[in-house]
Amino acid sequence: MPLIKPFRGLRPATAFVNDVIAPPYDVLNSEEARQYAEGNPYSFLHVSKPEIDLPTDTDPYSAAVYQKGAENFAALRQQKILLQDEKPCYYAYRMQMGNHQQTGIVAAASVAAYVKGNIRKHELTFPKKETDRVKNIEALNAQTGPVILTYREHSAVKELLANLTQQAATYEVSNAEGVIHSLWIIDQAADIAAINDAFANIERIYIADGHHRSAAASRVAEQCNKANAESERNYFLSVLFPDTELQILPYNRIVKDLNGLSKAEFLDKLSEHFTYEVKSTAVEPQQHGEYGMYLDGQWYCLRLNADKAKPINAIDRLDVSLLNQYLLDPILGIGNPRTDERINFVGGIRGTDELAKRVDSDEMTVAFSLFATGVDELLTIADENGIMPPKSTWFEPKLVDGLISHILD
Fold first, then answer.
1. Residues 85, 13: contact at Cβ < 8 Å?
2. Global pTM?
3. Percentages helix, strand, coil for the chain, rounded to the nearest 5?
4. 225 has pLDDT over 70
5. How many CB atoms neighbour CB 223 within 10 A?
6. I need a labelling partner for 381 at 20 to 30 A (CA). Which of 72, 155, 312, 394 fits?
């Protein structure tokens, strides 16, 4: 079963690429998106966050929002701001953030392989978020937010990408975050065949980021005519990066209260499973079993006692799991971080200053900085059909929306 195939990408006309590209739909809230796109009628946020073009009290999940997104998408195509390639292609996609660089292949990934388990997942999804993406895909008749997939580095793919990216990129643009996004069109039959051959030797690939988008694509495919195996609805937009190039940052935690405990009582209970010491500067953990904690204007370094830090199960070994098991649940009473409204999550890209800011503002009471989950841990858990705790991984850099879309005609 082929894991991926080329497709006719929808891309910005070269003169408009800087105007079109935008942060992913789930990175900005509606007000931030409205400000980001102000004065720019070509911003892809008019497609991915179309509530910005409706009254501010509009429900972002209302039918009017999906209809407005479809109208805006159609307008960009009619004005030839967005153009579709005439024949199926693969695309090489590189992101450069500071000294970090990762190069992948943009492809249409097989829903059948996803259902069968050759494209593996590691997270649960929320039905409401899935349904939102289903309605978005159906309204646009397109997938506009790529799923990030990964695979264990393969020498043939690495060599192909190195050769294909030697020429000048079709696009090379910087976004507001200073990340350079480069895209190359791969349209020669020999190159496409070489990519197909290389991935024919890869048994499975993995979802890194985009579980709701892939699940939504599967639902859309299930609703279409299954007799047409080649229908574009049986594939989903993806970018595949080798595991050695993915960058995962910590996904930190902030909690609203101490579960009725005084500071002294909390620290006393904490010492049953952790040793801790006061620090004069912010703590960014450097190894498994180490945590930073910000409480009452003070940073602490926590270290899980050695007898607690060596569970056998791959999921239980994760730092997020250990924090749940020995602190969040038994001490702070947060049994289910997925649903408990007393906990929130902060991507590592925002740094430890954001944690201190949220606590100092009295919005939250205590914050925890974590050691980042490893890509190898993600792959191991996916191979075991395991489900990671919510908010275990924060990938950087982020893809941009609007650079390439997958039309389902």
1. no
2. 0.92
3. 35, 25, 40
4. no
5. 11
6. 155
